[in-house]
Amino acid sequence: MRAAVLHETGQEKLEVLDDVEAVGFGPGKVRVRVRATGLCHSDVSAMNGVLPQPAPFVPGHEGAGEVVDVGEGVTHVSPGDRVLICWMPPCGSCPSCKRGQTQLCLAGFMNAGVPNFKRPNGDVFGFAGTGTFAEEVVIGAGSAVPIPDDVPYDIAALIGCGVTTGLGAAVNTADVRAGASVAVIGCGGVGISAIQGARLKGAAQIVAVDPVASRREGALRFGATEAVSPEELGDAKQRITGGEGFDYVFEVVGKSATARTAYETTRRGGTLCVVGAGAMDDFLQLNMFELFFDEKRILPSMYGGGDVLASYERAIALWRAGRIDLEAMITHRVPLVEIDDALEQMRTGEALRTCIEIG
Question: CA-to-CA distance for 209 and 235, rounded, in angstroms?
Fold first, then answer.
């Protein structure tokens, strides 16, 4: 089968190969024919080494498809069912799951170090234990989440990561208060989802911050009340909040520099929500006096900060009701063989979300 493979960490391009085989099928496993997958910035972060992932590997973790076969003991899905691929499936029995914080379950991370593909010359890993830049993937039963027949594969793929992460940051983690002022720094797919979440919660002002003009224009279509470049953020803070700072600021870039800017843009007693996935050697510096004196809440948000499966259901319900716009988030579509075009669209900021159409 075909799959896009990164041979070594640090390479900027993927090679689409025809000699890749999905392996590991057996009890408790599901074989999925991938139909659509989104390109998420985390895929690029894994490619360049910001996020740890053994290589060679097949990137992709935001996908949806059709069940081809199920292993012994799998009863919740059957061949032919439509499924969303969950890259962080809750195990249901660890301390985090028992506390209701399924987004912190580490069971899925263990799969990242187990090869689920192979080529004639050796093993190939799947990013985050999945690897959706492939025609087929073998995943644990918990990663195959059934979806209703009226949910298109491309919409389901978005919900599998970007939408759940951004929407949940505003709705679950920050729990934006109606009438509040909000700034969102970084307006790719996750940032746009955070903007939609803030709008759902009733925020009065939502300022989108991004260096790319097309993304700023796009943010206005999804609920931002205004959009500014990073250089204009200070002026927006002064105009909108009288210099005090925003009630909620979402950092959706994953860098200490933007997190520091976000902290300084948050009012005293306000909330900084860190959504971007950053590097282990990139440190955010805060002095102990400001940490105490400003009483700003710093809330990291992992995968939407709430029950993963419930978040999927909520996103589907909101999409059906027309409360969130997911179709318009997909600004580009490419076949798997043109995956490097999708990577370029992300790196330049041209795309909000690119859908890789596989079958």
Answer: 12
pLDDT, tens digit (0-9, with 9 covering 90-100), for 133-183: 999 999 999 999 999 999 999 999 999 999 999 999 999 999 999 999 999
- Hey, how many other C-beta atoms are within 10 angstroms of the C-beta on 150? 9
* Three-class secondary structure of residue 241 per DSSP: helix
Q: How far apart, in whole angstroms, are the C-alpha atoms of residue 136 and residue 3?
A: 8
If 0-12 CB within 10 Å is exposed, 13-18 middle and 19+ buried, where does residue 18 land?
Answer: exposed
8 A C-beta contact, residue 326 and residue 2: no
* Per-residue tokens: 9: 């960490």
Peptide bond preceding 52: is omega within 30 degrees of 0, i.e. cis?
Answer: no
130/139 Cα distance (integer angstroms) = 6
For residue 240, give every residue at least 6 positions away whose Cβ sits within 8 Å of its Cβ, in sequence order, or none: 181, 205, 207, 246
Q: Output b/e per residue, 272-299; b: 16+ Cβ within 10 A.
A: bbbbbbbeeeeebeeeeeeeeebebebb
